[in-house]
Records
---
Amino acid sequence: MPWVSNSTRLDTTWESIAGTSNLNAKMSKSPSVITPVKLIALSFLVFLFFILQISSPVSAIRKDVSLQDRYTCRTTVQGRFLIADDMGQVCDALSIDSHSRCCRGKREQFACHGCNLVSQCCNSYEFCVSCCLNPSRTQKDLALNVKIAKPVTAGTYSSLFDFCMGRCRHNSESVVHENAYLSEFHHCFSIPSNSSGSSGAQAEARLAGINIVIGRQGESCNSVCKSSGQSCVPNKFLLLNQCETMQKYMGCKGGCLASVGSDQPAEVVDDAPRDLNPGACLYTSQQSMLSCDGLHQHTKRLCPCA
């Protein structure tokens, strides 16, 4: 082996150390090496970003579409061919939407086909309901105060749709002799009148087909109508039991007075005792007393005959 001096060995050692230091310095300046831990963390962040990007539109779709409440219509069930929904639309049974139960498509709302708008009577049940639902024709606050039946204990309608269905289905003012319709327009939605009366034009329209006859002194309406080959129509007395109507058919020289009696509406004859108000027209304040067979020896009755 050749001989090497100690100084030479020392120089070589220092060169080796210096070379190692320079290598470390170069490595420290070079990009850091990605370790497995850093790789896992980076992958997790990318996964989270992907999830957030996907979930945002899905949640928006659920809020905008899937979670909305859908309105469900109520409909009539009486007709064989037509159906009216509570939006005031009329269609055939095949045109009902299976989900909403409303008439499909854009249709005329509050249609009054086949209706007499003066008498508020129609020849079709469904169009009667549709026409009745029009707020400009039926006042909701008045309709909801109408009793479902005559007894005092009877309840009232809970909605305008219930009123229109019930009123169009059965209306005593559209029948005569209790078992026959007065005319083909027998589905009526008018709010029942009282002694304070409806308008004169409306009352006249609802008396269409009725023969108004003034009886003889002391004669009942049954007798008055029978003498002309007709019958008394009791459910029309409510329309006659008003001053405006009586003044149109009778003289009423002594005024129009509220009274109580089964012979009313009537006019007191001129030669009646003074305390009976001769010449005055009388309407009864107790509508339950209205009848066809009432009479009084000093009055002439106003009778509805058909």
---
Amino acid sequence: MVDLCLVGLCVVLFCAEACGKNQSMTCPLSLRQRPTLLHQLYIYKCIMICLCTTTTHKISILPFEKMCISQLLFFSFILSAYVANGEMDTDTNAYSPRVADTTVFEGDGGSYHSWSSSNFPLLGESKVGAGILLLHPHGFALPHYADSNKIGYVLQGSCTVGMVSPSASKEKVVVIKEGDAIPVPIGLVSWWFNAGDSDTVIVFIGETSISQISGEMTYFFLTGTVGVLRGFSMEFISKAYNLNQNEANTLVTNQTGGVVVKLSEGIQIPQPQNYAKNYDEFASTLTTAVEFTSLEQVGLSFKHLKLGRNAVFQPVYVTDSVQVAYVIRGSGRVQFAGANGEKLLDATVKAGELFVVPRFVVAIEIADAQGMEYLSVITSSKPVIWELSGKTSIWKAFSPVILQVSLSVSPEFARIFLAKMTNNMVPMPP
């Protein structure tokens, strides 16, 4: 019996160590997601089932040496899931900021990472999605289209972008650089190339109300190992393009890369044309956006915020759309407030994290000592934004007596209160 106990313990340790090192190993719980409170209760329940036996009067602990092999194996898999996920996550707030958790593709030319709606359900509920494209030098994202309107923002480097609108006779090409934002309409075909000597990083944030998976942006590539042409038989390809069998096979299978490939040096990528236009109507600081189609067409707007040391951005809420914010640099804190004075979120946010502000929820962001820079995409081209502080605060629209009776304050306090609301971004004392 002792030997069986040792065998069981070895299985526990082996599975725990293996799952901790290999996130693709199959376990009872998804290892791509830290345990939620529901998962924790499930784990505890399963462990109790393994460790306890019931009598008519009491529950007694079942020692390891009295466990059968099936109990030991079951306990080992439950424990392995616990160990692989590390310390139990006590932060079960649905609004908590998250980093990209899914690697969609990774190759010599670059990679694409996304936020999974299964791990971040608020994305699906709010019908928004996000992803990050990394292009190494000479990395080329193959021509594709997506099922979502989105805005791309260059976090690092520069990129040559080509886009083909419906019925267009020629692609439009432009170079975007760090700090530029570019609207990408749903269904529009585009390619992306890094002609520089360092990596290019672009974050995409989009609206997914009619996407195939709510909360995620699905891409359809024209060519490559995941190209749509591979979904057809050679017979259909031959007839559709008036090719013989060999030509059809060349068309479909010659590109052996997928999503992002690395091009050889010397290939002449088309040069940019003069299609750039500055867009800062929705930006709190000067932001350059490159326009192929209007923001009205993609149905989105954005603002680029740079909060200085300990600065706070005014409390606002949006009634007709959702805000999705990506922290570019620095760190800070964010709080959400909802109906009945409920604090929905009080969290630290840092570079690389994404947070979502639903409709009607009031949000305030405060930068840390090093400041914070972030991009906020709003799912409306002309959002209705209500400000609770700053120069255009709602409070300033009230007549003095309404303000006084609403807050139950003296006229002097009301005067001081209004006088202090002068800026949208206010520096805080260190």
---
Amino acid sequence: MTGYQGRRDKGEVKPLVGFVRHKESIDPMVFKLGHTKGDFYRYAYRKMMMMMVLNLIRIIIMSSSGSRLALGPCPDLDGRNIVFGSVLEGGKARGEIKLRNPSRKSCWYEEEIEENLRWCFALNSILHTGATQFQDIQLLDTKPFGKALVIDGKLQSAEIDEFIYHESLVHPPLLHHPNPKTIFVMGGGEGSTARELLRHKTVNKVVMCDIDEEVVEFCKSYLAVNSEAFGDPRLELIINDARVELEKRDDKYDVIIGDLADPLEGGPCYQLYTKTFYELTVKPRLMEGGIFVTQAGPAGVFSHTEVFSCIFNTLKQVFKYVVPYSAHIPSYADIWGWVMASDYPITLSPDELDLRMKQRINGENRYLDGKTFVSASTLSKAVRKSGCSKIHLWAWTRFSSQARSSCLTRDEFVHER
């Protein structure tokens, strides 16, 4: 919101960006140049009403035209006017940045986790916002989680705890493999997955295939923590659809990693979670002893029925050995899940995992060790019990109409049942 100051003698009203505390006044809301508290409220109210009407018109227009980015002003802590985005899905905001408590000049990021449940946290500033051919992207400087990457209104990773996600995604499959040398990554444009892979001394080549070149270039520019990984000669960066790239390649890999967005309706990724894709594309491109791993979405007591259980059961129909595991990620406000799959046993003791970490990985993990993985792969009773076919048949019905994240077809669900 924008306040005003003016020179009444000539009838001029000059915009004053942000809210200014009067150094000589007890009331922090009184303007400089002798303006009264009433002046402030009159101008602020008019401006607020005008912005509400304009934003409503924008949302209506963008929703009807299929646009996914709604824009509006929000003052950061330096008092500058900055732009925020809210991603719309079916006319409903999924992620947005809002001004809360103007007297404190606070900006907040707010994300809809599910209906009637939202997750929000305070911002220091918005570092970047924009849109690519495929998705909307923002880089936020948050107070609780540091820099945070937001794509299509969903938090992808946060500076303070991204290591939990990426260590959990990368190290379990590579440590369970006897000698991983070649890796194929589907997605991973942020660069953090490649960073963790390249810490392994046995790895000779990492092929990272992401569909969105602009996101990759953005992350190269803004995420300095991964700059060394992007410059590593062992990394081969491919801009393409991961499914198309895998299908056209004759190469086989020791480990294939799915670092993709959740399988949502209309998104480019849901076809990369199907039984057909796993069976006809992924599995044939694994070398002997090869392991596949994928992120599998929320895995909490209530949220695991969204995609986690579905992905687990789909992989069980394709691979002989399947290991689901999960970890709490604070910035996600939930437990997150991953699933490993192979036709070869995936069994190592905590001591064996710790020994391989010491022998194979440069540097020390911040999160994962042998005992942590054993704990992570022990799912809660609620999640284990709801692995029954009834839940998954219900999940298919729900997501066929709302999110198209049905990893199996209806016939496959019924057959499993």
---
Amino acid sequence: MARKKRLVEQPALPTNEPKEKVAYQDAFQSNVNRRLEESSKAFEGKGKTILYAIAAIAVLAVLIGIFMSYNRRSNAAAQTALGKAIETSQAQVTDQPLPAGSTMKSFKTEKERAEASIAEFQAVADKFGGDVGEKAKYFIAVNRLSVDRPAAVTELEGLAKGSGEVGTLSKFALAQAKTSDGKLDEAVTIYQDLAKMSDPIIAKDTINFNLAQILEKQGKKAEAADLYYNIAKTAAEAKDADGKAIPLSLTAREAKDKLTALDPEKAKTIPEPTPEAPSGLNFGQ
């Protein structure tokens, strides 16, 4: 399915569907990168199968936000078709019957949901093409990760050669897949390319944190520590519009913890953000 959110708030997506069926909200968009971090951390170390799912689900959430931000560039019919396919890809997986009268979709397995999603996204790509078609192809690839991994990786490699948000997000998903496959050098190269971008869509803290984790696995502890330090220090020194300290993001806290384990003395040089009392009085005074 972050602290960095450049997407511009847009009017609600035009749709012919009943309002209760689709509930895209700007609040969701503003939390996309945070959810990406949290899902990655929650499943860390739990095996390749879950990591493969993260590559699909976490990045899928990011593109949903981007889809909403840029939806005015596509015609209403294409928007509606892509939106319905997205609903399918987000449908509940359960072997329990849904409540009586529910119009929501559900699937018994992740595989069934992925296959149904791929079919719907393929129909969108075939019918509309263009910008919406490219987004549909991306969704096809990330959903295919749990169905036919080799084919999905090949598709992501092709999409990653493109420009724009789809190309960028394809690179991120590809880097995750390479990491899960143990192809760490390839993953490092992709993450480094993403980190150099002026607007990589995904928060640079997330990109650099993932890169640092790989470098740490490769035994390049000094390089990893530098990345963790930069993430944590920048976050610790950040201020809001009123000059008040901003609470550390999940990624920044994790980075500081990682740095503490690698280089405790260096970690001590990072100041702790001072919380503000409700009255505006500084607890540190």
